[in-house]
Predict the 3D structure of the following.
Amino acid sequence: MQYIPDMMMKYFIELRRPFTVSELTAEFSFSRTTAFRVLKKYNILTSLNCRAQYYIYPVGLKFNIYGLYTVEGKCFSRWGNLLSTVAALANKSSKGITSGKIRSLVGTNVQLQLRDLTEAKKVFRKRMGKEYIYFSPDPDKRTKQFKRLKPESETSEPEFNSESREFLIEMIKILTVYIRNPSFSPKSIALSLCRRGENIKTDKVKAVFDKFNIVKKNS
């Protein structure tokens, strides 16, 4: 089916809620290829969480001070995808931002994105106490962010929120399996934990490996 621009615009404006590609193809009898072309044409936003399976029309959305819009548990960003959003949050933060804070804002783990952005020098990472804080890669902006930090922040021990405690618990479980089975790859560790009823994915195991510089040939 050929889509009519005015008809599509009217549909998106009136819908005003998250939707899936399957809904779009069912509504207009589109192929998935056509559906994705429509999404791109109208600059439809993809959810940062929920496995990026939801979409929403951005016009008229009231984004919060972080540039985020959350509805029905789905988080969307004026910055686009998760990688761009994480970079923007670090770059625009007044005094840097932690991974736990970003996770609480977007509703999903961002360890892999922060690792990739740090390696690409699109964010600057500095250890403060027992955790990392992420800053703008721009030296001038970063200097201003540093100045806004309280002097005691570099020496005081951070207070862990629920997100960071959860990550610590998962990290301990991952490392426990690794210590007992040092030949296991991240995938093997994730499978082992899954058999025990733990919902820890391979990507999360890889993030822990990266944190402790654990190198496995078969990951």
Confidence is low (pLDDT under 50) at residues 152-162. The chain has three domains: 1-80, 82-154, 162-211. The longest strand covers residues 124-128. DSSP finds ten helices and six strands in the chain.
